[in-house]
Write a structure and sequence with these properties.
Elements (H helix, E strand, L loop, with lengths): L1 H18 L5 H10 L3 H20 L8 H13 L3 H13 L3 H14 L3 H13 L5 H10 L3 H10 L7 H10 L5 H13 L5 H13 L3 H14 L4 H9 L7 H13 L1 H14 L3 H15 L3 H13 L3 H13 L2 H12 L5 H11 L10
Length: 363
């Protein structure tokens, strides 16, 4: 209870100080300079961030005491307390001073492995404005840490890239760090830079994707940078075994279709080999309207009917044939005309044919 009362008292006092606005900044600066430990610094920087944040919301001019600017830059370089680092980074977002805060924010971004703090520090650097770019570029050029280089690639997004920056980004596409590769690719894409390394990076991401989001993202990147080769088509087809929802399958199908004839060939092979009725149903939804006139589509469904022992798989293939409309009907009739000896196949084909309106003499 004492702890709760102490916390309540702190927030009550904090609200009182925040209400003073800019008038409280000189005293808080002195208190921050005299603070003996990180707990004190945490409390003071919390109040400072609230004051400056309120001033920004009210569109008031923010003029920080020079001592506070200098002290914030110094603490950014020196502190190793994660929460204090976050407080300082958040404070620097609403009260940017690129020359004083830039070096400390870059040092923080380089040393921290905390994902949330990396995002905060990256945003804080961006909010320092164009004047911080020379510092960012210098850190980018000298960095040998792919994770840090990738974070700086994110900061450089939507900026004018020098030839040296482009070369460094292209080199980063070869990294074993997937996040760094993706950040480099994103920045190069935004700048309109074309490179064969973008495809290689996307293929690495496709091969290493473990989550649904990663797989969808990688497939979309491969689609954008495909070279229409059999190699790319095979890589996309192999990714289907990790695609368990229609969202990922849609991205993979789109990438295969963007890869031209090799992609279509692999797509039909994936469909024909599928033993998952849900996957067959998803492929039917995605491919039938686009490829119903390609005879290989109906042939894939017929091939499933010939080989599968699973009636649910058979039903999915029959549905695919029916949804292929006239080409599906013609494929069924052609298969029945061959008078298959397999009674099971004949029964399945007859069932599929029953979904179509009987032909008339004029058909």
């Amino acid at each position: 209870m004492a702890s709760a009362q102490s916390e309540e008292a702190f927030y009550g006092a904090a609200r009182t100080v925040v209400a003073l606005g800019s008038d409280a900044l000189p005293d808080l600066t002195k208190r921050l300079a005299a603070a003996k430990d990180d707990d004190e610094r945490l409390n003071i920087t919390y109040v400072l961030a609230n004051i400056v944040g309120q001033m920004k919301l009210k569109r008031e001019a923010i003029e920080l005491p020079p001592e506070l600017v200098s002290l914030t830059g110094k603490l950014l370089l020196e502190t190793r307390n994660t929460q204090l680092e976050a407080n300082l980074a958040n404070f620097s977002v609403v009260a940017p001073h690129p020359a004083e805060f830039g070096p400390g924010l870059l040092a923080l971004l380089e040393r921290t492995e905390d994902q949330a703090l990396r995002a905060t520090a990256s945003a804080a650097i961006v909010y320092q404005g164009a004047e911080v770019l020379p510092l960012v570029q210098d850190a980018f050029y000298r960095s040998t840490n792919d994770r840090f280089t990738g974070d700086l690639a994110r900061v450089l997004y939507d900026t004018e890239l020098s030839e040296q920056s482009i070369a460094k980004l292209q080199d980063l596409l070869k990294s074993d760090n997937s996040e760094a590769r993706q950040l480099a690719a994103r920045t190069l894409d935004k700048a309109g830079i074309k490179s064969s390394d973008l495809l290689e990076s996307a293929l690495k991401d496709l091969a290493s994707a473990r989550t649904e989001v990663e797989l969808s993202f990688a497939a979309s990147k491969v689609r954008k940078h495909t070279d229409l080769s059999e190699r790319v088509a095979a890589a996309l087809a192999s990714a289907f075994e990790r695609a368990h929802r229609i969202e990922e399958r849609v991205e993979l199908v789109s990438a295969l279709l963007a890869t031209g004839e090799p992609g279509k060939t692999q797509l039909f092979a994936v469909l024909q080999a599928s033993n998952d009725p849900e996957e067959i149903g998803d492929l039917t939804r995605v491919t039938n309207t686009r490829l119903q006139d390609d005879p290989r589509l109906s042939a894939a469904y017929i091939a499933i009917l010939k080989r599968t022992d699973d009636e649910k798989v058979s039903e999915a293939a029959i549905h695919g044939l029916v949804m292929a409309r006239q080409p599906g009907r013609e494929a069924i009739e052609a298969a029945l005309k061959e008078q298959p000896a397999d009674e099971r196949l004949r029964r399945r084909l007859t069932k599929a044919a029953s979904f179509f309106t009987p032909r008339t003499a004029s058909d």
